[in-house]
Amino acid sequence: MTGRSDITRVPKPWGHETIWARTDDYVGKILHIKAGEALSVQYHNVKDETVYLLSGNLIYRIWEHDTPRNVDLKIGEAYRITPGTIHQMEAVTDCDILEVSTPQLDDVVRLKDRYGREGTNAP
């Protein structure tokens, strides 16, 4: 439906996310990661996402053949994560990341998490 979108702020142990768009086809978020904090090492079974670094200094890790590799993502650059790609974001400084994805928000398989959230939310 055309018009203003509801905005939802979701507290997270690493900061918060602001969901600014949610439809049957896509979701738009801004992730705010506090300096020194990190999201889980995770992958998605179905969810396809692209991130765009708005601000801050971010360590963006991608696993290839069980080996982590840091992607040098600078402010103003984007990176796509397809289903099955193991990844993690860690903030060196406070970071804001724009994320757009398919709408499967619960499709998260956590392999390692410093906040005790290992496991899966995936259906």
What does this structure look like?
- This protein has 123 residues and is mostly beta strands.
- The protein is built from no helices and 12 strands.
- It has one domain (8-104): Jelly Rolls (Sandwich).
- 0% of the residues lie in helices and 52% in strands.
- The protein has a 6-stranded antiparallel beta sheet, with no helix packed on it. Strands 4-11-12 form a 3-stranded antiparallel beta sheet, with no helix packed on it.
- The protein is globular.
- The relative contact order is 0.28.
Spatial extent as radius of gyration: 14 Å
Low-confidence stretches: none
The total beta strand count reads 12
CATH architecture label: Sandwich
* Biggest sheet layout: 6 strands, antiparallel
Strand content: over 45%
Total DSSP helices: 0
Q: CATH class, please?
A: Mainly Beta
Order of strands, widest sheet? 1-2-3-10-5-8
Number of domains: 1
Query: CATH H level: which superfamily?
Result: Jelly Rolls
Shape: globular
Proportion of residues in helical segments: under 10%
Q: Taking all residues together, what is the mean pLDDT?
A: 94
In N-to-C order, the SSE pattern is EEEEEEEEEEEE
> Span from first to last CA?
27 Å
CATH topology: Jelly Rolls
